[in-house]
């Protein structure tokens, strides 16, 4: 498979780091984004000529254009984009302020939208892929997650609309499942008061039983897909372990 040029956001830890690690193992060239520069600089030193990065907040209006320009300037093209960054707020619907909704949407929706828009002209040229990291909360209600779940539902819809309009781009939304990351730790520590107790207990139980996914499980599927997308799946919202993605699974 020819080596691709791919932007990965939220690349410094968790799922993003797993996606990054697999793509690097396959000799793809990456432009990485995260708020912390140190882990990204370590990756660039470890993989000379294969990694460029920008450390910053994805809600910064200049980040999408800078990342796209960096990919083309450094590596000559852009084949893929993984929109992996995001945050979770756990607060009951009635008590979540409009400002809190707006702040979460700025991260989870509008910065992803801006990044996709900036990348479209280049990814159109290569007939590449835009992959939106979604969540089961986009389809199922969790008490306290109205802001988060609705933001991920918005991503699903944006992905589907993009696929319909841009026939040369494969746009998919992928749910990674319950992954052993910092976000799961946040749910366990902060969800007790805001979440439905039965739902909350399932997260505690999954952790204690060792049932959380390793980041590499969905991460490797996402990495394989963005590097070699199936155009027939453009516009779909899929779980990482769905039958449609069988050829990308271990």
UniProtKB/TrEMBL annotation:
It comes from the Eukaryota. Keywords: NADP, Oxidoreductase. InterPro entries: NAD(P)-bd_dom_sf, Sc_DH/Rdtase_CS, SDR_fam. Belongs to the short-chain dehydrogenases/reductases (SDR) family. This is Short-chain dehydrogenase.
């Amino acid at each position: 498979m020819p080596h691709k040029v791919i932007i990965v956001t939220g690349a410094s830890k968790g799922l993003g780091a797993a996606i990054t690690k697999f793509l690097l193992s396959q000799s793809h060239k990456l432009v990485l984004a995260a708020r912390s520069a140190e882990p990204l600089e370590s990756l660039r030193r470890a993989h000379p000529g294969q990694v460029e990065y920008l450390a910053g907040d994805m809600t910064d209006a200049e980040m999408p254009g800078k990342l796209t320009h960096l990919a083309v300037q450094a590596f000559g093209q852009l084949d893929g984009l993984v929109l992996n960054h995001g945050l979770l707020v756990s607060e009951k619907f009635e008590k979540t302020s409009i400002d809190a909704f707006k702040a979460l949407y700025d991260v989870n929706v509008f910065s992803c939208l801006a990044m996709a828009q900036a990348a479209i002209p280049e990814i159109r040229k290569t007939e590449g892929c835009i992959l939106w990291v979604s969540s089961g909360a986009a389809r199922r209600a969790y008490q306290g997650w109205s802001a988060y779940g609705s933001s991920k539902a918005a991503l699903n819809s944006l992905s589907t609309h993009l696929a319909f309009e841009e026939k040369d781009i494969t746009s998919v939304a992928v749910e990674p499942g319950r992954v052993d990351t910092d976000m799961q730790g946040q749910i366990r520590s902060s969800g007790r008061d805001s979440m439905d107790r039965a739902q909350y207990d399932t997260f505690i139980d999954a952790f204690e039983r060792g049932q959380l996914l390793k980041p590499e499980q969905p991460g490797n599927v996402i990495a394989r897909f963005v590097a070699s997308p199936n155009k027939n799946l453009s516009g779909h919202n899929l779980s990482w372990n769905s039958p449609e993605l069988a050829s990308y699974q271990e």
